[in-house]
Amino acid sequence: MRPQKISDQELTVNMLEILRSRGYDGSSLNDLALVGGLKKASLYHRYPGGKETLVQSVLDHFTGEFEHRVFSVLTAKKKKPKKKLTAALRSIALIYDNGGANCLYRALSMQSGMEIFGAQIRENCQKWLKSFEHIGKDFGFKKKKSKLLALESLIKIQGSLVLSNIFGDRKLFIETLNDIKNSYLGN
Amino acid sequence: MRPQKISDQELTVNMLEILRSRGYDGSSLNDLALVGGLKKASLYHRYPGGKETLVQSVLDHFTGEFEHRVFSVLTAKKKKPKKKLTAALRSIALIYDNGGANCLYRALSMQSGMEIFGAQIRENCQKWLKSFEHIGKDFGFKKKKSKLLALESLIKIQGSLVLSNIFGDRKLFIETLNDIKNSYLGN
DNA sequence: GTCTATAGCTAGATAGAC
DNA sequence: GTCTATCTAGCTATAGAC
Hints:
The structure is a homodimer of 187-residue chains.
Chain A: H1 8-26, H2 29-34, H3 40-46, H4 51-74, H5 81-95, H6 104-107, H7 111-138, H8 143-167, H9 170-185
Chain A binds a DNA duplex (18 and 18 nucleotides) through α3.
């Protein structure tokens, strides 16, 4: 057994960078291999199913980050809601590099990506909504208002990511996170 | 001179459908030719510069729709602001097929598309912000508040398009348009 | 103005050496 | 576990017949 040139974890993180910025069709196996310091044939040893399973694995990692750093924080039983929301929003800022990095879900949400990963992307966005709905109720809002706040939060995150990407202006994303926080704290 | 199989206008509209749903890398010249009932070699007669100029032309058409149906409406001197905003939002609903169609700017905003069209996409989004800022002032809001409302509108449109696309739920987009209208009318 | 044919390249994927 | 070499299919693009 030869040693791995790069760990699975590290390779996944590097490939995430490519995929979230170039999308499914725009990311070649050559590109994906190179960011790991590998040749593309080597990727088939780690991902025998090819590109689809490779991206699947990166998508799972990305989703795992949310489950671990955002969803589980928001739905935790202890702590005050304000502390939980603040921590979750800080994690979101981290995951999106303060607006400098795209959302992988969005990057994969063009037709080719949606055909393959649509169901999972939908499912994960649903979890997002549920966990934000949870924190809304935790703040004392009624169910309907909590649902609305959750949806508005997700809309604002996705929209501000699109725009901070187009304008190359991270401030736009940061301020939107603050706006979301204020929508829960009651402006 | 043989007659065209399909008019430039019609071909552009058909190709827009492909590009906005599949992005730059995901749309092959073969796909783009077929929706016009042509072979891909024929596209080089209309667009001698190849794929880049072809997409450029579709992008120009898309931007023209906004200039004509949205920006010019919002900045018109006559009429009451409410009527202008209502008309503009109705046009936006039309352009995005009530949330069923993607934004071409977003579809082209992955890395490969941004390298080529980034400057124009940025410029057009700036025009969007300016025209919404204009209507804000028209409603009597101060400059700062008008700028904020404009930015929030664009964020909400882009975000709700991403989500209505992911969830396959146009209601989400329609309700966001209403939300934007209300943000100008003072809830 | 559109077509067939094809060049030249790069994509995803596989075989087998080391 | 990674590599070189290679296959096939698809891509963008061009040449030239009709």
